[in-house]
Specification:
Structural class: mainly alpha
Strand content: under 5%
Largest sheet: none
Low-confidence stretches: none
Radius of gyration: 13 Å
Helix content: over 70%
Number of helices: 4
Shape: elongated
């Protein structure tokens, strides 16, 4: 997958995580479903040990109330394509 397609997809997935802020009261319950899905998606986008670690971090970030503002998919893209050059 092209790295820029991953960036756009990551930004979109981070935006999905922000949806819970727009639905007061019910929003945090959507994280019960979104947390495992986002963790799984992270492991599919980024293979290997970094992807697994990011998947766990994403799961925890989405599962905890109030931490949805952290753009984990975008941060993982930055880590993978800016800081960690192969």
């Amino acid at each position: 997958m092209n790295k820029y397609i991953k960036l756009v997809l990551g930004i979109a997935l981070d935006a999905v995580g922000y949806v819970s802020f727009f639905i007061p009261g019910i929003g945090e319950f959507t994280d019960i479903v979104w947390a495992p899905v986002s963790g799984w998606l992270m492991t599919k986008l980024y293979k290997g040990k970094p992807g697994k670690i990011a998947g766990v971090v994403t799961f925890i970030e989405e599962a905890l109330p109030g931490f949805d503002v952290i753009p984990t998919f975008t941060l993982m893209w930055i880590y993978t394509h800016v800081f960690k050059k192969d």
